[in-house]
Amino acid sequence: MQGIRRKVVYVGGYEVLGLAVGTVVMTVVTGEPPATTGPLALMLTGVATTWNLVFNTLFEAWERRQPDRTRTVRRRILHALCFQIPLVCMIVPLMAWWLGVSLMQAFLLDLVFIIYVPFYTFAYNWAFDRIFGVPSSAMNEGRNAEPTRARAPRSLRRRGRAARRTAPELAAAVSARAPGRGARRVPR
């Protein structure tokens, strides 16, 4: 999965899971009812979602320009920290305003998330890449080429019909020619 679809699925999953956990954690830590922490968590999620889309677009643009695009542990840690630090600068003032506390109190409240979110981001990114594959920006040149072309069956190669077909196209062509579907049978 690549492009905008990948980003929407990634950010949607990341933020929905983050919203659920964030509401519960804020309710427990602040002692405020979910009616107070829920809307705050929703606002924080909105800020985080916007930042997530912007940051990942910028990060992948940077990643594409790197000689080695492999997503190493070091690169994943860099990603998590570079995402989190600006996010804290956006979220702490919003928390202070909503809860009517000082910036320092909001920062201390956010400290739970400051510690938690980089680990969550690291784990979520790793799991997402394992499930959906890494984005093209994280593929080295050899792996970033066009889809692999499969070799056509000999019967199709002789006729030149298989030129420039991908593996799924060839599989469909071969299954369409299977006995019982109008294909001629080859004598044994």
Structural notes for this entry:
The chain is mostly helical. It folds into two domains: 3-143, no CATH class; 147-188, no CATH class. Helix content is 70%, strand content 0%. The chain contains six helices and no strands. It has helices at 3-30, 34-64, 73-99, 103-132, 154-159, 167-176. The longest helix is centred in the first third of the chain and has 31 residues, at 34-64. It starts with a helix and ends in a 12-residue tail after the last helix.
Shape: elongated
Low-confidence stretches: 144-152
Order of helices and strands: HHHHHH
- Given the helix and strand composition, which structural class is it? mainly alpha
The total number of structural domains is: 2
Please indicate the percent range of residues in DSSP E strands (runs of 2 or more). under 5%
| Average pLDDT score | 76
Largest sheet: none
- Total DSSP E strands: 0
* Span of the ends, CA to CA: 43 Å
How large is the count of helical segments?
Answer: 6
Helix content: over 70%
Instruction: Please give the radius of gyration in angstroms.
Output: 25 Å
